Amino acid sequence: MPVITFANTKGGAGKTTAALILATELARAGNRVTVLDADPQRWISTWHELSGRVPNIDVISEITMASIQGHIIENRGNTDYFIIDLAGARNSLLATAIGLSDHVLIPIQGCSMDAKGGAQVLELLAQLEKQVGVRIDHSVVLTRVSSLVTTRALQVVKVLLASRNVRVLETPIVERAAFRDVFDCGGTLQTMDPARVSNLDKARENARVFAEEVRRLVPLHVTRAFRRAA
């Protein structure tokens, strides 16, 4: 029951969208997914309430620094993957969630502000490794990428990440209407009407390939030893 945390200290980086895409794709593949919605905006909780029952997905909201580990321990028997969606802020809950994670995904758009927010998460990961000797595996996922052009700002972000030897997922999340509309419509990409959502087939394929790449990085058997003993 790996724990995957989505983190960027800047809001609007595509963090919640990426978390929901991964959760629904893992669930569609038959995995039991528990989302810990630690974002005060409660976007995923609202989506879940709007959707009704979505097979293989549970959502827990009102997550605090004091409760987050307890939620993981209490639900590990009925969960294959935990996904944590954090607020776009640097706070104590961010540090706690990262410490509980098997993999941290850092969504970054092609802009310098997002890169700075992502860099703060990378700095926190480096401090954790240096101060307590715990290394948390992590990757950057590029979000809201244009399907037509690669912007100069995005190239700058890629160069910056490469200079820091940061792993960047091969699959970016492309800007698609379906990824926005699913929060308003509820359900999943698979239940949306292709007659009403443009390029839905391309959004579905993007989501599938993204989730497959994450599953290869974070297979089901990867779990932090201290959590197994808890």
Compressed to H and E, one letter per element, the order equals: EHEHEHEHEHEHHHH
- Helical content band: 40-55%
How much of the sequence lies in strands comes to 5-15%
Largest sheet descriptor: 6 strands, parallel
Q: Quick one: how many beta strands?
A: 6
Unreliable spans are none
Mean pLDDT: 87
Characterize the overall form: globular
Number of domains: 1
Rg calculated over all Cα atoms: 17 Å
The CATH topology is given as: Rossmann fold
How many helices? 9
Instruction: Provide the structure class.
Output: alpha/beta
CATH architecture: 3-Layer(aba) Sandwich
The CATH homologous superfamily is called: P-loop containing nucleotide triphosphate hydrolases
Span between termini? 13 Å
The strand order across the widest sheet is: 3-2-4-1-5-6
By CATH reckoning, the class would read Alpha Beta
Organism: Ferranicluibacter rubi
Protein name: ParA family protein
Give structural notes.
The protein is 45% helix and 14% strand. The protein contains 9 helices and 6 strands. The model has no long low-confidence stretch (mean pLDDT 87). It has a 6-stranded parallel β-sheet with strand order 3-2-4-1-5-6, sandwiched between helices. The chain has helices at residues 15-28, 43-51, 68-75, 92-99, 112-132, 152-163, 177-185, 200-217, 225-229; strands spanning 3-6, 33-38, 57-60, 81-86, 103-108, 137-142. It is globular and about 55 Å long. Helix 1 (15-28) crosses helix 8 (200-217) and helix 2 (43-51) crosses helix 7. It is an alpha/beta fold and 230 residues long. The protein has one domain: Rossmann fold.
